[in-house]
Amino acid sequence: MKGPLFYSKILLFGEYGIIKDSKGLSIPYNFYNGALKSDNNLSDIAKNSNRSLVSFATYLEQLSKDEPDLVTFDQERLKQDVSNGMYFDSSIPQGYGVGSSGALVAAIYDKYADEKITVLENLTREKLLTLKDIFGKMESFFHGKSSGLDPLNSYLSLPILINSQDNIESANIPSQHTQGRGAVFLLDSGTTGETAPMVQLFMEKMKNEGFRNMLKNQFIKHTDACVDDFVNGNVTSLFGNLKQLSNVVLDNFKPMIPAKFHALWKQGIDTNDYYLKLCGSGGGGYILGFTEDIDKAKTALKDYQLEVVYNF
User: Fold this and answer.
1) Sign (positive/negative) of CA torsion 1, 59, 48, 82?
2) Structure pTM?
3) How do residues 177-200 score in pLDDT, each as one tens digit?
């Protein structure tokens, strides 16, 4: 048995902000993917995945009982496949902010959900929100709290534009210029990050009125502007807003940025060679970078491996 491939994702804009109704933009990233597989002779990694699926199946059984009007699963078939050695074979790095659990959730929903909403249907806003709700409940098993966007992106394999929490749509983003000098890239921090503690830290910060005001008046304002600029192809305006956003994150989200990258982050803002931002919840994993000249960015970041994901 080998199931269909589900891809990783990159949340270009909206980390943390979408919890508080900022705009967001998420794109599939086909470089990494995963699929459900079965095997009688499991490696240690596959055994770990299989053990995780045992717990996940139990969680989904409870979810089906608690919210039968939202989603139910073919529980017998799922349990049988898991007991026969099913695992999630994935190249998506865990704890890197590119949606490893999201791809798994999408794969399980695709294979085992009863009366599932398929990607071939006319995906109305209502259907997208229902899927997002289902995926959020499913992925909460891994993160404690989930927006459902990562699995949604992986399941649809389309760019998703988040206008607000109850207004999402599949998005048309400008075609890539493969020869373009401008680029979005991933920078490997060399350590993994865990989502749940970072989200918990954010929620603690939200108790502070000054932090809430900063989020609304600066972080969300610049995030929304970046989303509009990116979708509409306004590159010059985009980089002006990116600089502001990078600055706000450095000033207010320091615990989410690995300490050894603080100076590198500031260097990008000072030189305008590149601008860094969080990729997912931060705390490790990938850092997202934007540059108007990829050669300049590579020179400035010569000690690091850059992975280009989109060209302007």
Assistant:
1) negative
2) 0.89
3) 878 899 999 999 988 988 888 988
